[in-house]
Amino acid sequence: MQRMFMRRVGLALLLMLAATALTFWLVTAAPGNVAALIAERAAGAGADGEMIAKIADDLGLNDPLPLRYARWLGDALTGDFGISLRTGKPMAEEFGERIPMTLALLTGGGVLALVLSLAMGIAGAASNGGGIDRVLHGMALVGASTPNFFVAAMLVIVFSVWLGWVPTFGVSGLTSWLLPWITIALFPASVLARVVRVNLQDTMSRPFATTGFAKGLTRGAVLLREALPNIAIPYMTTFGAQFTLMIIGAIVVERVFGLNGVGAFFIEAIRFRDFIGMQATLTLFVVFFVSINLIVDLLAMLADPRLRRPRKA
Amino acid sequence: MTAPIYQVEGLVIDLYTPTVSVRAVDGAGFHVAPGETLAIVGESGSGKTVMTLGPLGLLPEGVAVDLRGTARADGKDILAMSPAELSRLRGGFFGVIFQDPMSALNPMLKIGPQLAEQARRFAGLSAAEACKEAVSLLARSGIPDPEDRYDRYPHELSGGMLQRAMIALALAARPRVLIADEPTTALDATVQAQILALIRQIQKEDGIAVILITHDIGAVSVLADRVAVLYAGQVAEEGSAIDVLTAPVHPYTRGLLASVPDFRSDSASGTKEIPGIPPNQAQLEAGCRFADRCDRVQPQCNTRRPRLQTVGMGVVPHRVACPVVIAAEGIVTHD
Predict the structure, then answer these.
(1) Higher per-residue confidence, B281 vs B309
(2) Contact A211 B96 (CB under 8 A)
C-alpha cells in the first residue's frame, strides 16, 4: 500500500514535468515573438529590430530550448511564473486574484454534479425500468449531448432575460453563481448519473445482492447498503476525470458569465499572444489535472478494502 | 411425523427474458418439517434452486418471473405476502447458504457486523448482545479466532472459512428453515466434508428444517432424511433417503445413481451415464419429460404426463412418476 502510494506520487510528479515541458515547447513554437511584443509595449510603434534583438538577448530567448525550460522551471518552482505580457502584473498576483473565482466555480459545479448524479442514478436504479428510470435516462442523454455554451445561453435567456431572477453577468451574491454552476455541472452530472445507474444495475444482479435480499433487506436497502458501496471505485474514478475536465468548461463558462477567473484569463492570454500568461495558466491546469487525479486514485484505493487491507500471505 | 413448516405445492414458475420464456418449474412441490433434512436432487437446470428460492423472491434480478401454485411457511401463504412481509420472512424465518461464498458475500462489508445486525433485527438482541452472539456464531461455525475474524472483510478469509461465515450469517437470525443451495460445490474436497458435517451438527442441535439443494449424491447420503429427485422442473421420485438411494424406481433416479462413480472399484467401468441431454424447457411437449432419454420408454410416455404414485409400505411415502416401471416390475401402489 505504502509503496503503491509512493509510486503514484512519483508518477504524478513525472507526469507534471513532462506535461509542462510539452506545453513550454508548444507555446514557444506558436507564431509570435515575445521580444517584439515587449518592445512594442515599451516603445509603441518606435520599436526597431535592434531593440527587439537586445530584449531577446537580455531575456535569453536565443538560448537553446532545454536551457530556457530549465530556467523557467527553476523560477516556477520558487513561485515565479513571470509577468503577464497583457496585464503587466506578475502571474502570481494574477493567480492570487483569479484562482478563488475559478475554485468557487469548480467546487460548486463539482458538488452539484455529485449530488445530481447520485440522486438521478439511485432514483433510476430504484425505479428499475419504470417511468422515472426512462425519464432520467432521457434527461442524462440530453445533458450529455448539449454543448455548454448553448446551455449557458439558454439559461441566461430564460432565467435572466425573461424571468429576471438572476443577473446575466458578474458576481453578486450566491444567486449569481447558480447559472454558472448549473452550466458547468450539467455534462458531468449526466455522464456520472449513467455511471451510477449502470453500475448499480450490474451490482444488483451479483450474488451478494441476492444474499442481501436473503438477509431480509428490502430492495431499497439492498440498493443503498449492499450495492452502493460497491460502485464507489468506478464512480470516484469517473468523477475525478469529469471534475478535471470541468476546467475546460470553466474557460467557456467564465467568459459567458463574466467571471474573472483563470479560464477567462487564459482566453485573453491567447488573444493577446501573452506567452508568459499562457504558459503559467497551462502549468496551473496541468497541476490541477494531475493532482486531482492523484487524489481521486488514492481515495479510491482507500475505499476498497481489498486494496486498503491486502490479504496477509 | 411432524407437520411441514415449509410446504410448496403445484408450483409453476416461468422465467422470461426479452427473447425466451422457460418453464423452469412445472407443477412440482415439496415439504420439509422441523428437524428434518430434505435433499432436492437433480442436474444443472432441473429447477432445484428456482423451485426452492423462487417462492421467496430470491431469484437474480433481471429475470422476469411468473409464479403460480401454493407456498406456505408456518401455515402462512408466502405468495400472497406484501414485499415488506416477504422481506421479513426471508430474513428471519429462512436462512440461506449460497453456492459460492466468494461471490455471495459483499466484498465491501465486514463479516461480523453483518451477523450482529441479523441477530439484532431478527433475534431481538441488543447491540452489545448481538455483537457477542456474532462472535459465538463464528466460533460455532468452526472459525478459529472469531474475535479477530469479526472485523475481517471477505477477501481476508479462505473459501472454506467464508462458507463457514456464510453459514453463521444464515443462522444469525435464528431461522426455522435453513436452505443450503449447493453449499459445497465451490469448495475443495476436504473442506466439503467439513461443511456437510457442520450443517448436520447444526441441524441436530437446533432441530431446524434443512433443505439441501445438490447434485452430489454423496452429500445426500450423509445428510438427508428425505430426497426429492427433480427432472426438467418436475418431481420424478421422492421418498426417504434410504428408499430412494437403495431402491430407486424411476429410470432417471436409477440412471442418476448409476452415474455416480464407485471409488471401491478400480476403474470407471462401474459408472454409467444417461444418454442424451435434458429437454429444452422453452418448448415442452406433453408426456414424460424423460421419455427421450429413457431406456424403458413406451409409446404412452410421449402422450401422457405421468403422475406421482405411492409405492412400498414405508412410513415416509415413496412416490414415483413412472407407471411403466411400476407396471413392468409389478410394484404395488396404494393411492
Answers:
(1) B309
(2) yes
